[in-house]
Amino acid sequence: MAERHPRRSVSRARLDQPVAPRGAIPRPHYDPEAFGRLSERIARFLGTSRFLVYLTLFCAIWILWNAAVPPKLQFDSYANKFTLLTLILSLQASYAAPLILLAQNRQTDRDRVAMEEDRGQNQRLQADVEYLTRELASLRLSLGETATRDFLRDQLRDLAEEVVARTSEGVFDQQARLQREERERRAERKRRRSDKDKTETPQKLSEPFDGEADSA
Predict the structure, then answer these.
(1) CA separation (Å) from 38 to 15, 42, 99, 110?
(2) Are the C-beta atoms of 76 and 84 separated by less than 8 Å?
(3) How many other CB atoms sit within 10 Å of the CB of residue 108?
(4) Three-state DSSP class for 1?
(5) What was the pLDDT predicted at 22?
(6) 103: how many CB neighbours lie within 10 A of its CB?
(7) Mean pLDDT across the stretch 176-204?
(8) pLDDT recorded at residue 9
(9) pLDDT at 99 over 80
(10) Which tens digits make up the pLDDT trace of 109-120?
(11) Among 124, 196, 198, 208, which is 20 to 30 Å from 138 by CA?
(12) What is the pLDDT of residue 169?
C-alpha cells in the first residue's frame, strides 16, 4: 500500500536551521535581504529629481490625452474627474510609503551597527591611550634622576660661564697669587732653618726641639 504523505528529501534538510512550521494555509516564501535591497533601490529612485520629472510627464500626457482626443479614444475622461489617474497615484503613494519606511529601517539598523563598532573602537583607543599615558609616566619617573645629554650640556655651559665670570673678576688670579706667596714663605723659612742648622751647634738629645715653632 502506497503512503499518503511521501517523505521529504533528507539531503535538503539541515540540522542547524529550524524546520518551517506546518500550517493549513501555505504562506509565500521570500528572501528578506533581497526584498530589502529592492526596496532601498526603489526608495532611492523615488527620492530623485528624475522620478519627479517622469511622474510630471506621465500625469501631463495622461491629462492631455484624455482632454484633447475624441471621446471614443479616451480611457479616463475629464467628466469622471480622472478617476483612474487618481487611483494610480494613490496606489503608487500607498506602496511608496512602506518601501521608504523599510529602507529607512534598514539604514537605521546599519547605522546602529556602525555606531556600536565605532563605540567599541573608541573604547579600545581610549584604553590604548591610557596604557601609553601610564607607560610614559613611569618612564618619566624612572628617567627623572638620570643625567641626560641635554642636562650635561646645560651643566657644562653653566660651568663655562661661571669660569669666564670668575676669570674676568680676577678671583683665580688672586688665589694663584696667594698660593705663590705662601710657597715663597715656606721656601724662605726652610732656607733660614737650614742656615741656622749650619751655624749652630748640634743640640743635645735631652733638649726639646724648637722646630715646632717655626713650622707653626
Answers:
(1) 30, 6, 9, 16
(2) yes
(3) 10
(4) coil
(5) 65
(6) 21
(7) 75
(8) 44
(9) yes
(10) 889 999 999 999
(11) 124
(12) 55
Rounded to whole angstroms, the Cα distance separating 87 from 122 reads 52
Rounded Cα distance between 178 and 53, Å, is 109
Identify the residue whose cell numbers are 529612485: 45
- The yes-or-no verdict on residue 174 having pLDDT over 80 is no
Tell me which residue has cell 591611550: 129
Question: Which residue is associated with the grid cell 655651559?
Answer: 157
Any idea how long the chain is?
Answer: 216
User: CB of 68 within 8 A of CB of 78?
Assistant: no
Cβ atoms 66, 77 nearer than 8 A: yes
Can you tell me the mean pLDDT for 153-179? 72
- On the 0-12 / 13-18 / 19+ scale of CB atoms within 10 A, 123 is exposed
Q: What are 154's three cell numbers?
A: 646645560
* Residue % of the chain over a pLDDT of 70: 73
CA-to-CA separations, 107 to 4, 44, 48, 96, 112, in angstroms, rounded: 48, 12, 18, 16, 9
Cell digits for 7? Answer: 517523505
**DSSP assignment, residue 7?**
P
**Residue 61: how many CA atoms within 13 Å on its side-chain side?**
6
Q: How far is residue 178's CA from residue 115's CA, in Å, rounded to a whole number? A: 83
